[in-house]
Amino acid sequence: MTPFRLRNIPLLSRVGADRADTLRTDIDAAIAGWSEALLLRVDRRNQVLISDGRAVLNRAVSVGPSPPENAVFLGKLDDGRHVWAVRSDLQPPEDETTPVQVLDLRRTGDVFDDVSAQLVATATALLNWHDSARFSPVDGAPTTPIKSGWARINPVTGQEEFPRIDPAVICLVHDGHDRAVLARQTVWPPRLFSILAGFVEAGESFESCVVREIAEEIGLTVTDVEYLGSQPWPFPRSLMVGFHAVGDPEQPFSFNDGEIAEAQWFTRAEIREALDQGDWSSDSSSRLLLPGSISIAREIIESWAALD
């Protein structure tokens, strides 16, 4: 079989801005850059305003003369301006004639340009973490943000907490030739299928997790587990690590953990036809509906389907 690689960088893995991590602890530089900085507003539903493929960035000084406690530093643009984010109601751009839309990164992230995709993904992940990390896991004391939003500290003990990321594997199982497994979760409507995924457990490697999860979810024993790529998935704070592996179509399925309602082997031709029909959001009558382009699942499926 032709070597299997991702054809494109997953949409949420695009890099468009300098994360400028050294500025997170340089308070003087952060304050000095605030007067010219830009601000991304993310509401409670993780929505942002977008105009012509770009996230709407307001002037940072609109919220005060210095970074507020709840602001998180996202990096800097090519022109050197700093970019911050806050959880707040959305506000239109200063140019009121600019047409805007309210969009959700998870559902419509494919319309974002590279810079906006990176900024919104980072802001969403950080702000979601702050929402759930306001108290110390050690003694329950209230914590306060430090390092420009990239850590929280217990003011009594000095214990620091950092943004939590939950790693998960996502894997396309194929037979090494012309067929691949797609599955439907029990909570999904009929015809919605994707590849298999699961969270990494303590003390487990990514590759071991792939083998375990697939055995638990559909009862297949897989081999030749190979890495493909990764993508942040800030809903609320995951990192999706993509793989492919080989399974035996003669081995029967068994749904051992109750998460999967059904699984089937599909030919490459069937999957190509389904890809041509759009994605889960389409009104297609196709018997097979596949994930949208914002997910690494879509990129993995498309890359496999494109093989000769």
TrEMBL record:
It is an enzyme of class 3 (hydrolase). Coiled coil: none annotated. Gene3D superfamilies: 3.90.79.20, Nucleoside Triphosphate Pyrophosphohydrolase. One of its GO terms (biological process) is NAD+ catabolic process. It catalyses: a 5'-end NAD(+)-phospho-ribonucleoside in mRNA + H2O = a 5'-end phospho-adenosine-phospho-ribonucleoside in mRNA + beta-nicotinamide D-ribonucleotide + 2 H(+). Keywords: Hydrolase, Magnesium, Manganese, Metal-binding, NAD. Its cofactor is Mg(2+); Zn(2+). PROSITE patterns: NUDIX, NUDIX_BOX. InterPro entries: NAD-cap_RNA_hydrolase_NudC (IPR050241), NADH_PPase-like_N (IPR015375), NudC-like_C (IPR049734), NUDIX_hydrolase-like_dom_sf (IPR015797), NUDIX_hydrolase_CS (IPR020084), NUDIX_hydrolase_dom (IPR000086), Znr_NADH_PPase (IPR015376). Residues 163-288 form the Nudix hydrolase domain. SUPFAM superfamilies: Nudix. GO terms for cellular component: cytosol. The keyword Glycosyltransferase does not apply. The keyword Oxidoreductase does not apply. GO terms for molecular function: metal ion binding; NADH pyrophosphatase activity. Its EC number is 3.6.1.22. Belongs to the Nudix hydrolase family. NudC subfamily. This is NAD(+) diphosphatase.
